[in-house]
Each structure stands twice: as structure tokens, then as C-alpha cells.
Amino acid sequence: QVQLVESGGGSVQAGGSLRLSCAASGYTFGNYCMGWFRQAPGKEREGIARIGSEGSTTYADAVKGRFTISPDIAKNGLYLQMNSLKPEDSAMYYCTAARRRLIAGFGFVCSTVKADNYWGQGTQVTVSS
Q1: Calpha distance 87→85 (Å, rounded)
Q2: Which residues lie below 8 Å from residue 121, measured CB to CB, with a gap of 6+?
Q3: pLDDT score of 107
Q4: Residue 63 gets which letter from DSSP?
Q5: Positions in the chain short of pLDDT 70
Q6: What pairs with residue 33 in β-bridges?
Q7: Are 97 and 122 in contact (CB under 8 A)?
Q8: Are the C-beta atoms of 94 and 122 separated by less than 8 Å?
């Protein structure tokens, strides 16, 4: 069973930085697409950064140039370095893992099947102005 545990959240002033960590167990890192989502009160959950099925990284426009996603080899998990934080970045941040599946004639994709997707419990980030 895949387990994801986030840490590193907290309170910071606008312009500051935080680094979130996701410690993972019960899986092989290379077999999963890894990413970060966030959800603010009253808003929908949004994907903000991802390491995809072929290892490429993608970012939501709202965080591009400020956030960096990277693997944590030692903990078999994930980092999210967040710089130049803004009050609108305040949210609960979640680490996610989606099984990579090989589709014949197409290549590897990040599975959207519910049973192939795992979430951590979240870590709160609060940015004050």
C-alpha cells in the first residue's frame, strides 16, 4: 500500500520561502507520476506541479517560475521548493502519486484510475501579507 506523508508547511510572510517534503513508502518511485496539489478554503483542488510519466516537470501558471518540484531520492519521495510566496498561495498542500501505465502504441501515461492514485494527508501553508 502506497503511503505519502507531507511535511514542511507553516506560516511565512509574503516574499518568503518554504520547502515541502513528501516521504513515500510502499512503492517504487520510478513506477509512479508524482505531484503536488493544493486546496484553499472555498476553492477547488488544483494541480500545481508534476513529474510526469516520462520524467518531465510541469507547473500551473500560478506558480511557474516560483515553485520547483524535485525528487527526494533519500526518502523515495518528493520536494516542493516554494519561493516568492504570495498570500494567494495559502492552502492545504497535498502530495500525490499516480501509477504509470503502459498503453500499447501510445507509451507511458499517468493513470487516472482511482485505485492507481494516492494522496497524503496534507500540510498547511499560510502566507501573510
Answers
A1: 7
A2: 5, 6, 94
A3: 86
A4: T
A5: none
A6: 98
A7: no
A8: yes
| pLDDT for residue 47 | 95
CA distance 40 to 35: 17
Return the beta strands (E) in the chain as ranges.
3-7, 10-13, 18-25, 32-39, 46-51, 57-59, 67-72, 77-82, 91-103, 107-110, 117-119, 123-128
Q: What is the pLDDT of residue 21?
A: 96
The residue type at 119:
W
DSSP-based three-state secondary structure for 101: strand
Name the pairing type of β-strands 10-13 and 18-25: unpaired
Cβ atoms of 100 and 53 within 8 Å: the answer is yes
- Backbone φ and ψ of 88, nearest 5°: -75, -5
Pseudo-torsion of CA 41, 48, 100, 70, nearest 10°?
-120
Residue type, 96: T
Please provide the size of the chain in residues: 129
Residue 75's pLDDT is what? 77
